[in-house]
Design brief:
465 residues, alpha/beta, Alpha-lytic protease prodomain-like, Alpha-Beta Plaits, 4 domains, three-stranded mixed sheet
């Protein structure tokens, strides 16, 4: 999100509020703790003091994390929030160790007299109220803006709420020990401090685990599955790889999808666009990159043959499949470099055929016609007599088919005739019907002109007047 945006201003205002709350609570707990000599209150003061440092760190982190990406930080500055959360974890761990040390000293080495009065209970009650308000405000903002720094700060203040209740119970235990003569409650304050340390240690584990995972770009499995499911849109054959990383509140998703090899560049790009939009809908605000790879359908021998030919640096055309007695046979023209010897070209074709049979095991046989790629331009010669024979043959076929022809070219190339023409058919005719008619036309021409070789017929609808 851009720096200075309403969301960034909201994050900073909530973080500033937590700083002010931490200042008030630290000062109040420290003063009353020193007055009453309560380790529970002093531990709470230390905890709130570290919360003040952590809240200041959070305020700084959310101010930096909103800066846009630059040349040195291509993924933005969001990781500063993860570092802030890890720093708060270290502070909490230090607090826990200090509390345990002091409590064990009072329990086993040097007893301390704790003075319990109304102020002790009032300051803890105030702490519970302020921390509850701060924790809820921070938690709402963290959830709204996906901010780990604010989430860590919210956990800090929520632990203050839990630990304050523990200290309150400890103070009540000390008071009960004095008034009712129950000596086993005399050390309740120290035990309350140990309870605080236990809560702090548990929060250390939760915050630390999450911040380290984000710093190491670990992502929950369910998040990756969510992205993969969103990327399976129309046109996508397979989702091959998903990588998701967090950088503070920002989420980056890199997705590799496979599309049909024969669908063409434009349709492949459209499928990638649909996948990106779907993932962004599943992860609002995410930075999504979709990489497209071709995928050959093993159930389509023709596509697989073209794909394997390209992988071998060869060209394939004139592919045709025959089915006899429930078995499939494939014939094709295989284009190889023109400067190869016959044995080299045959080895290339053999490797291609072997890979094709392995990829499409249902093929009973593969027959390749080897031909050079990139043939030189031909030098045609005119042949008026043959041209007249071709035109006469056309006049004997086209009127009965309701068709006309133009741009008829007849050339003699390498000893054989080559014919090309444009054939005008009815506008509403189907493609299959038009193709069948051109096949009949070619057969008619070959029967009428014995030495006819190559025939190319271009079909088109009549021009609109």
């Amino acid at each position: 999100m851009p720096a200075g945006s309403p969301a960034e201003r909201h994050k900073r205002s909530v973080a500033l509020f937590s700083v002010c709350a931490a200042v008030i609570l630290t000062a109040t707990k420290l003063g009353v703790g020193l007055w009453t000599n309560s380790l529970g209150l002093l531990s709470e003061a230390a905890h709130s003091g570290l919360d003040l440092v952590a809240a200041g760190m959070t305020l700084w982190a959310v101010s930096i994390s909103g800066r846009p990406a630059d040349e040195r930080h291509a993924y933005g500055h969001g990781k500063i929030e993860n570092l802030s959360a890890l720093f708060e974890t270290i502070l909490l761990l230090g607090t826990s160790v200090w509390i345990v040390w002091q409590a064990m000293g009072r329990l086993f080495f040097k007893a301390a007299q704790v003075e319990v009065n109304v102020c002790s209970f009032l300051v803890i009650t105030l702490s519970i109220m302020v921390n509850t308000v701060s924790s809820r405000a921070l938690s709402r903002a963290a959830h709204q803006h996906q901010s780990q720094a604010l989430e860590a700060d919210a956990l800090h203040f929520s632990t203050d709420v839990w630990s304050s209740w523990v200290v309150l119970a400890g103070l009540a235990g000390v008071l009960a020990a004095r008034r009712f003569g129950w000596p086993f409650l005399a050390q309740a304050d120290a035990f309350a401090a140990l309870g605080v340390s236990g809560v702090v240690a548990w929060v250390c584990w939760k915050i630390g685990e999450k911040s380290i995972n984000d710093l190491l770009d670990a992502s929950p499995r369910e998040l990756q599955e969510k992205v993969a499911a969103a990327a399976r849109v129309e046109g996508v054959t397979e989702v091959r790889q998903v990588r998701v990383r967090r950088s503070g509140p920002a989420v980056f998703a890199d997705v590799v999808v496979a599309v049909g090899h024969a669908i063409g560049l434009e349709r492949a790009h459209a499928a990638a666009d649909r996948a990106e939009q779907s993932v962004r809908a599943a992860l609002p605000g995410a930075d999504v990159v979709v990489h497209v790879e071709p995928c050959a359908d093993k159930d389509d021998p023709l596509t697989m043959a073209r794909v394997l030919a390209e992988r071998h640096g060869l060209g394939a055309h004139g592919l045709r499949i025959y089915e006899e007695d429930g078995r499939r046979y494939l014939e094709l023209h295989l284009e190889v470099p023109a400067d190869l010897r016959l044995d080299e070209a045959h080895d290339l074709a053999g490797r291609f055929e072997s890979d094709l049979r392995q990829a499409v095991p249902q093929l009973a046989d593969v027959v390749t016609h080897i031909e050079p790629v990139g043939e030189r331009p031909c030098s045609p010669q005119s042949d008026p007599r043959s041209e007249a024979s071709v035109l006469a043959a056309l006049q004997g076929f086209l009127p009965s088919a309701g068709a006309t022809a133009h741009d008829v070219k007849v050339r003699r190339v390498a000893g054989e005739l080559a014919v090309s023409l444009h054939c005008v058919l009815e506008r509403g005719m189907g493609v299959k019907q038009a193709h069948d008619l051109t096949v009949l036309l070619e057969k008619h021409l070959r029967a009428a002109v014995p030495d006819l070789g190559r025939v190319v017929v271009h079909v088109e609808p009549p021009e609109v007047e």
